[in-house]
Amino acid sequence: MDIRQLQYFVQIARLNSFSQAAKSLYISQPTISKMIRNLEIELGADLFYREGKSIRLTDAGEILLTKAQNIVDSFTSLSSELDSLRELKQGHIQMGLPPMVGASFFPAVIGEFHHRYPGVTIRLHEDGAKKVENDVETGLLDIGVIVLPVDQGKFEFFSILEEKLELLVPAGHRLAGQECAKLVELAEEEFILFREDFMLHDRIITECVKVGFQPKVVYESSQWDLISGMVGAGLGIALLPETICRDIDRSRIAVIPLTAPVIPWQLGIIWRRDRYLSFAAREWISFAKGIFVGH
């Protein structure tokens, strides 16, 4: 038994005619008769009384009609909903964003996507890049924005931004007037970092260790504006991406390019390599590529 047999059966019962049903379905009468006969053989019961040119349902046909109508209606509804998904009239995307990324890069992009596809909803989960990556891997999120690099065996990705970290010090700090600073010069400083679930937390500590010191971390936060505010209040120094530094209050904070080494900060959009993506998620990826990398 398949859905076409049930669709044909319901149409015959509705029109009370094999020939009219065949005409309405744009198939031949022998074809529809054969389909119904096969259905009767499969069910082991006659579905119609045939009396000359007129037909009527048997008791088995009456039972099947009630069930078949529900099945056909459900299938029609399913097909309509799937068409809506394919045409992006509806859909849902679960996307992870580190807090410092969302406000700077994505409101305009999400706004444009929503304007183009108003029926698609995007639920944003603001977490550190480590958690975002883990949630994409486990399937809690469809898409995530993280700090690259990423495990290419697990994830598909594309880069959306490449920048460097810059040094933030209080306006009266000994390094405030320098044109640039070396990481080793910060060995005795007190650091304000993002929390451990942010990739920059480990990245900064690793780079400090490479040049010969373990940074003294005095505060951790998930908010870049709180970090910069604490720097401005003289509570320590911080390393933040260039884009974030453009919005820093320069009256209380000096922003200094960091050299030797330069610490790169590269953002990317990731999704699981081996997991099904919804029509909406695939369109978001294509849309974001078009904006960020021009593809």
Automatic annotation (TrEMBL):
Keywords: DNA-binding, Transcription, Transcription regulation. GO terms for cellular component: cytosol. InterPro entries: HTH-type_LysR_regulators, LysR_HTH_N, LysR_subst-bd, WH-like_DNA-bd_sf, WH_DNA-bd_sf. GO terms for molecular function: DNA binding; DNA-binding transcription factor activity. Residues 1-58 form the HTH lysR-type domain. The lineage of its organism: Bacteria, Bacillati, Bacillota, Bacilli, Bacillales. Coiled coil: none annotated. PANTHER family: HTH-TYPE TRANSCRIPTIONAL REGULATOR YBHD, NITROGEN ASSIMILATION TRANSCRIPTIONAL ACTIVATOR-RELATED. Belongs to the LysR transcriptional regulatory family. This is LysR family transcriptional regulator. Signal peptide: none annotated. The keyword Cell membrane does not apply. Gene3D superfamilies: 3.40.190.290, Winged helix-like DNA-binding domain superfamily/Winged helix DNA-binding domain (1.10.10.10). The keyword Cytoplasm does not apply. It holds the Pfam family LysR_substrate.
